[in-house]
Predict the 3D structure of the following.
Amino acid sequence: MALLVTIYELHLQRRHNEKSLQPIAQIAITDRGKLLSIHIENNGVGPLIVEKLIFTKDGKHYTNIEDCLDLNPRSYQHISVSDSSKKVILPGSYEEVFSMKFEEGNIDKEMDNVRELLAALNLKIDGRDIYNNKVTVDRDLRWFIRHHAT
């Protein structure tokens, strides 16, 4: 009987550990001042292992944001995630997927162009926690054109 109770207690302890070390992933967007950015936040208490980024544009799926944007890849910061280079996001931190800072001057038209390019995308993150439980987050990026007149 003691052996069964011990096994059951171990099972409960493992379930507790899994739940208490769970990452909470979020796709956050910034459109402030001269900065446009998209980043993955981990608001949980366990690490988030990002295995794949999937960008969807016009029904087609891409794994790199540079394949979706008609911009020079050197003009913005971006990351790529592959089988050989997964990203680990620690609790309370983030990883930038896209970031573009605009220079001084008349930038409104240039920023609007980039906003429209980003708004055409959908971003899905496939990842896992340290217990190999699947974590998936999906966000439409139409938020970038929220102030545009339709």
Q: What stands out?
A: The domain at 25-144 is CATH 2.60.40 (Immunoglobulin-like).
